[in-house]
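User: quick one, sequence for these tokens?
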């Protein structure tokens, strides 16, 4: 598992925007591709995310901060599809880490060698979307010994090699 750093901004647009979520695929003039996501909120602000970074997850949560230019870059991308967001006030600039397994599939199932230990992680940005199905499958697995609603075979944590304790560096 590793953490993929993600950036987001919350914008208060000058004019109201549609209340619908927007998933954008765009290519800038320099050839860089981006996939920002836009989520209008009931309070009139708009959550925009879509820039990832490879900065390692810090040990101290206070070290999870946006890259210095991330807010400006997200607002620049927003300008390409929404002038209202480009001219809006950035009321928050944020960063978070999303868990991702080495093969990009979630880890869901019993933890090998530890009786009664289960894991459901590594969903990346799709965790919220997949939470209901993941939760149901994990509840079935824990309560009944097998998941009926979802085939968890592709997500078995045993598919990946165990982490060597000396491979972990604490900075």
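Assistant:
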């Amino acid at each position: 598992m590793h953490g993929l750093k993600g950036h987001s901004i919350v914008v208060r647009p000058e004019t109201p925007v549609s209340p619908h979520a927007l998933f954008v695929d765009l290519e800038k003039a320099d050839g860089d591709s981006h996939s920002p996501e836009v989520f209008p909120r009931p309070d009139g602000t708009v959550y925009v995310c879509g820039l990832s970074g490879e900065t390692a997850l810090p040990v101290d949560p206070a070290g999870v901060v946006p890259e210095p230019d991330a807010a400006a870059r997200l607002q620049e991308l927003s300008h390409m599809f929404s002038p209202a967001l480009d001219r809006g006030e950035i009321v928050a600039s944020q960063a978070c880490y999303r868990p991702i397994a080495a093969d990009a599939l979630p880890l869901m199932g019993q933890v090998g060698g530890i009786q009664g230990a289960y894991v459901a992680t590594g969903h990346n940005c799709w965790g919220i979307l997949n939470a209901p199905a993941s939760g149901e499958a994990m509840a079935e697995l824990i309560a009944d010994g097998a998941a009926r609603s979802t085939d968890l075979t592709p997500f078995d944590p045993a598919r990946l090699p165990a982490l060597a304790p000396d491979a972990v560096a604490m900075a």
